[in-house]
Amino acid sequence: MATEIRVPTLGESVTEATVATWFKKPGDAVAVDEMLCELETDKVTVEVPSPAAGTLGEIIAAEGETVGVDALLATLAEGDGAGAAEAPAKSETPTAAASGGSQSVDVMVPTLGESVTEATVSSWFKKTGDSVTQDEMLCELETDKVSVEVPAPASGILGEILAAEGATVEAGGKLAVISSGNGAVAPSEPGGPDVAASKAPDSAAAGKGRDVEDAPSAKKMMAEKGLSSDQVTGTGRDGRVMKEDVQKALTSPTPPAAAPAPAAPRGPVAAEDAGREERVKMTRLRQTIARRLKDAQNTAAMLTTYNEVDMSATMALRKEYKELFEKKHGVKLGFMSFFTKACAHALKEVPEVNAEIDGTDVVYKNFVHMGIAVGTPNGLVVPVVRNADQMSFAEIEKKINELGARGRDGKLSMAEMQGGTFTISNGGVYGSLMSSPILNPPQSGILGMHKIQERPMVVNGEIVIRPMMYLALSYDHRIVDGKGAVTFLVRVKEALEDPRRLLMDL
């Protein structure tokens, strides 16, 4: 039976891609989910996995060709006949069918998301020799931003685990081998998978020693910017230079170093204290948080302006309608929907706070994708409520609840944390009274919410007790002037102190 391999969905507003690399050639045996080729769009690189095990037939779209969404890339011959036909010529491939009715199936690292090329194996839920069923979770991988669970591609016995806990693996790499079928695992190559694995560095080294064709878009950009391939560190297959590698080389103040700069040495620690310390390696998520926050401080001209808001009117409105709201919409009415609506309203009047800098251009967004900072056991993540300016209070509350729960469970996808145009961070849930939030690049603004605290205020010449909250807007002064930042914060304050303004668009 022949299976068609087609171009997958490439992403929002992306309609075509260039075939960058074929990892297999006609006649090669392939396993299910094994990477067949790599497509390159204007923004990202997309790997195309095999939908089934079999033999790669005709390649319809060669390297360098431009293809549209759902276009035919190649054909795949499925079934035992296809695998058997290739077995004599491909005796070194451990994924081909083995003797005795058993078959070894590779457990591969799945596609990790846009611009994510590697992950760390955080946990194995199974051990060598355990029985597994198809789609049962085998292990968990941790990337820079999210956790990814790897299901079993087939039922059988978990054979060798090739990537232990703590190991770093690349997208498309092999994690383990499952022996499926009636017989025992019988590697088709003498010496077993260890020998095959030991050959990988040699083949990779051989790839480095030969000429490697760089991605077409990378060659075009290097020609435009006057760079040569030896000035760019390639991260693609066999050291191939990709478009994002050229972009990184252009934005780096110095050429990429072979190794990271050594960290500042620790101060001296007394001998009696050293035994009471505990050293724990930072998770990849925490490392990414640290790097991005420091990059924001180093890149943006960051400034913070403050104001305070009387929450009486918003609290009274919420109290009056919260039971009816929950009864009708099935979700509680919180403060985040009020702040989201107020910010979306203010961003229309001060669009530069919703914009970003791209080189010497300012990119204004005619939409609001609101990032909502969520604290998780592994660190801070910022899922995005897309088109928040077009959503109702109920839709916003439902989406925030859904994304918050997924964030705390480590189930957020890369797509759910990308594309934000503005961010709200609520430190008040932890008791913070005042803080200066740090920008979430490439965004130009972030609003910090804080604890609601009753304070004496002067209203119409009288001292009254009011529930007050400090607001902080951190912004990029390169694009947002002080007048725009203050205006934005005042509009948020006005909307919260009189929520009817949101209905009247005032």
UniProtKB/TrEMBL annotation:
Q: Which domain of life is it from?
A: Bacteria
| Lipoyl-binding domain span | 2-77, 104-179
| Compositional bias per record (Low complexity), positions renumbered to this chain | 193-207
Q: Where is the composition biased (Polar residues)?
A: 92-102
Q: Supply the alphabetized keyword list.
A: Acyltransferase, Lipoyl, Transferase, Tricarboxylic acid cycle
List where Pro residues composition bias occurs: 253-265
Q: Which InterPro entries match?
A: 2-oxoacid_dehydrogenase, 2-oxoacid_DH_actylTfrase, Biotin_lipoyl, CAT-like_dom_sf, E3-bd_dom_sf, PSBD, Single_hybrid_motif, SucB
- Which function does this protein serve? E2 component of the 2-oxoglutarate dehydrogenase (OGDH) complex which catalyzes the second step in the conversion of 2-oxoglutarate to succinyl-CoA and CO(2).
The source organism is Boseongicola aestuarii
Q: Which PANTHER family match?
A: DIHYDROLIPOYLLYSINE-RESIDUE SUCCINYLTRANSFERASE COMPONENT OF 2-OXOGLUTARATE DEHYDROGENASE COMPLEX, MITOCHONDRIAL, DIHYDROLIPOYLLYSINE-RESIDUE SUCCINYLTRANSFERASE COMPONENT OF 2-OXOGLUTARATE DEHYDROGENASE COMPLEX, MITOCHONDRIAL-RELATED
Q: What pathway does the UniProt record associate with this protein?
A: Amino-acid degradation; L-lysine degradation via saccharopine pathway; glutaryl-CoA from L-lysine: step 6/6
What's any GO biological process attached to this entry? L-lysine catabolic process to acetyl-CoA via saccharopine
Question: What is the name attached to this protein's record?
Answer: Dihydrolipoyllysine-residue succinyltransferase component of 2-oxoglutarate dehydrogenase complex
Q: Which family does it belong to?
A: Belongs to the 2-oxoacid dehydrogenase family.
Q: Where is this region: Disordered?
A: 83-102, 183-217, 248-277
Assembly with partners or alone: Forms a 24-polypeptide structural core with octahedral symmetry. Part of the 2-oxoglutarate dehydrogenase (OGDH) complex composed of E1 (2-oxoglutarate dehydrogenase), E2 (dihydrolipoamide succinyltransferase) and E3 (dihydrolipoamide dehydrogenase); the complex contains multiple copies of the three enzymatic components (E1, E2 and E3).
MF terms (GO), sorted A to Z: dihydrolipoyllysine-residue succinyltransferase activity
Q: Which GO terms describe its cellular component?
A: cytosol; oxoglutarate dehydrogenase complex
Amino acid composition bias (Basic and acidic residues), ranges on this chain: 208-217
Q: What is its EC number?
A: 2.3.1.61
Catalytic activity, as annotated: N(6)-[(R)-dihydrolipoyl]-L-lysyl-[protein] + succinyl-CoA = N(6)-[(R)-S(8)-succinyldihydrolipoyl]-L-lysyl-[protein] + CoA
The taxonomic lineage of its organism, from the top, reads: Bacteria, Pseudomonadati, Pseudomonadota, Alphaproteobacteria, Rhodobacterales
Cofactor (UniProt):
(R)-lipoate
- First-level EC class: transferase
